[in-house]
Amino acid sequence: MRNYGIAAVFAGGIFLAPISGAMAQTNVAYAAEPRPEYVVFLDGGSHLSGSAIDTVRLAAGAAKSANQVRLVGRPEHTAAVKNELVREGVPAQSIIVRRGAGNPLPKVADGIDEPVNRRVEISF
């Protein structure tokens, strides 16, 4: 009799496991939508390359309906991206600029300008 009890508990666990797994997956469907985010890499100094300008234009098109646009990066880089966003029709008063925290990655070598240090993140 005891063997049947153990078998019933084991079998019940096998049959209920797929149901509980499916129920857990339904919670994922209710997750918040990801916020649009763009990353712009500048050339040396604060110069926007052609591909960087294309990225800013895409971000500007998506940002026109946003209440706030956040830029994170070094001041000279965020200024260049902000100017391009304003040129593309994003209201200047809706753009919030924040100085980016330094990247914890090690330096590549002396005298080499790392692209990760020339990035601006755009989010809204």
Which secondary structure elements does this structure contain, and how are they paired or packed?
Layout: H1 2-26, E1 37-41, H2 50-63, E2 69-73, H3 75-87, E3 95-99, E4 119-123
Parallel strand pairs: 2-3
Antiparallel strand pairs: 1-4, 2-4
Helix pairs in contact: 2-3
How would you describe this structure in keywords?
single chain; alpha+beta; 60s Ribosomal Protein L30, Chain: A; 3 helices
Protein architecture, described:
The chain contains 3 helices and 4 strands; from the N terminus they run H-E-H-E-H-E-E. Residues about 20-30 have low confidence and may be disordered. The chain has helices at about 1-25, 50-65, 75-85, and strands spanning about 35-40, 70-75, 95-100, 120-124. With about 120 residues, the chain is α+β, with helices and mostly antiparallel strands. The chain has a 4-stranded mixed beta sheet with strand order 1-4-2-3, covered by helices on one side. Helix content is about 40%, strand content about 15%. It has 2 domains: about 1-30; about 35-124, 60s Ribosomal Protein L30, Chain: A (2-Layer Sandwich). Helix 2 (about 50-65) crosses helix 3 (about 75-85).
